[in-house]
Amino acid sequence: MSAAVQGGRWLGIGLLAAGLLALGWWSNQTNRFHWRVQRLHIHTAALRPFTDTVQLRRHLERALRDTSLSIGEALRRVDSIVRQETYVRALAVKADYSGTLEIFVDERIPLFRVIPRKGRAFYLSADHVMLPISGRTSVHALVIAGDLKVEYKKGGRIEKGPLKKALRLAEAFLMHPYWKNQVAYIYVDSDGQLSIGERVGRYRAFLGSNLEELDQQLSLLEKILPYVYESRYRFIDLRYPKQAIVK
After folding, report:
1. Which domain-ending residue is among 92, 107, 122?
2. Taking a C-beta distance cutoff of 8 angstroms, is the pair 98, 38 a contact?
3. Where are the alpha helices (DSSP H) in 32-52?
4. In Å, how far are 36, 65, 189, 214 from 193, measured between CA atoms?
5. Residue 30 lies in a domain
6. What ranges in the chain are assigned the alpha helix state H?
7. 95 is in which domain, residue-wise?
8. Spatial separation of the C-alpha atoms in residues 78 and 94, rounded to whole Å
9. Each residue's pLDDT tens digit in the chain (247 positions)?
10. 47 within some domain
11. Are residues 199 and 87 part of one domain?
């Protein structure tokens, strides 16, 4: 092997080693970079968000007061704090070395208001997460009430029980072009029997505990409603196949 080739090899190894040392130095300096938030912005899609952004800002400012934080550690703290908000479904964080920190929050939207016979009322999101009742804004939500055998737990999820069955019914209503604007509440009695009440009417329709015939029950109910409106009947029993009993 010629001296020139051997010298070139050693030169290449030397440059690679120098490059690795420089990369290690840069990574170490970045990790030790002292960073302070100069400008903090929290963005939500809603004009009146459910998340208390004022309180959230205070928590973040206290957590980021330490000027010895690296940007990586600061972002981890931000993620940990923001995700404690149950209304936050997802978030994106943007930071730069000038001290500007932007947080983009994607909120959970309450679809159902749950009022158990015993215990605290709460909202439920589309992914069945328990949300606290918020006084920050009003919600046009379908009500699920009765003997639900559920206890509110912040951020908890509904996996089973009477409320789970009622949710199946509630979600079917939300997907239906007619009933999504008609049904005001779903009620579950102590035996797990389901009934519904309309927004504009005064009747109550009993569906029972078996939802396999729901489409037929709702189709029959829609057909007899004009007759019910003209009469004094207030109770409609749809628990029996292909028939409705009114009284």
Report:
1. 107
2. yes
3. none
4. 58, 55, 5, 13
5. no
6. 3-31, 53-63, 71-82, 162-175, 214-230
7. 39-107
8. 11
9. 544 444 444 444 444 444 434 434 334 444 444 567 778 888 887 767 888 888 888 888 888 877 677 777 888 888 888 888 888 888 888 877 777 888 888 888 899 999 999 999 999 998 899 999 877 666 788 999 999 999 999 889 998 889 999 999 999 998 888 888 889 999 999 999 999 998 876 788 999 988 888 888 888 988 888 887 777 788 899 998 888 888 8
10. yes
11. no
Cα–Cα nearest to 197, from 230, 170, 226, 163: 170
Largest interatomic CA distance in the chain: 109
Cα–Cα distance, 51 to 88 (Å, whole number): 7
The per-residue b/e assignment along 120-131, b for 16 or more CB within 10 angstroms, e otherwise, is eebbbbeebbbb
Q: Are 107 and 49 in contact (CB under 8 A)?
A: yes
Dist CA 166 CA 189 (whole Å): 11
The H or E element that residue 194 is part of is strand 194-198
Residue 22 within a domain: no
Return the H-helix or E-strand segment holding 94: strand 88-95
Domains identified in the chain, total number: 2
